[in-house]
Amino acid sequence: QVQLQESGPGLVKPSQTLSLTCTVSGGSITTTYYYWTWIRQPPGKGLEWMGAITNDGSTRYSPSLKNHISISRDTSKNQFSLQLSSVTPEDTAVYYCLTHVTTTGMAYWGKGTLVTVSS
What we know:
By secondary structure, this protein is mostly beta strands. The protein is 0% helix and 52% strand. It is built from no helices and 11 strands. The strands form 2 sheets. Strands 2, 4, 5, 6, 9, 10 and 11 form a 7-stranded mixed beta sheet that branches. Strand 9 (93-101) and strand 10 form a beta hairpin. The protein is globular, with a radius of gyration of 14 Å.
């Protein structure tokens, strides 16, 4: 079974770049039909889809974040990463990485990591 684990700083200052990494085990990030995704949930709010990277390295981003977000991968480490630039306190959220299998609808989630944007 695929397992995902988020890692990165829990506190980021306003205007800086938020960087998180998702380490994948039990499966390869180059597997066909798998989308590797970042989602976040601000306190008291719903889930927000941020973007994804596919098995061939193509990226998809939320239009509301496209000027600030970058998703990349390191196939040698079986990891994919999120960078969100120029953060504000409104970017405070629990950040989840997950994979979605497009052919079956199955999804595997990481446990999530809280990132607080504060000076």
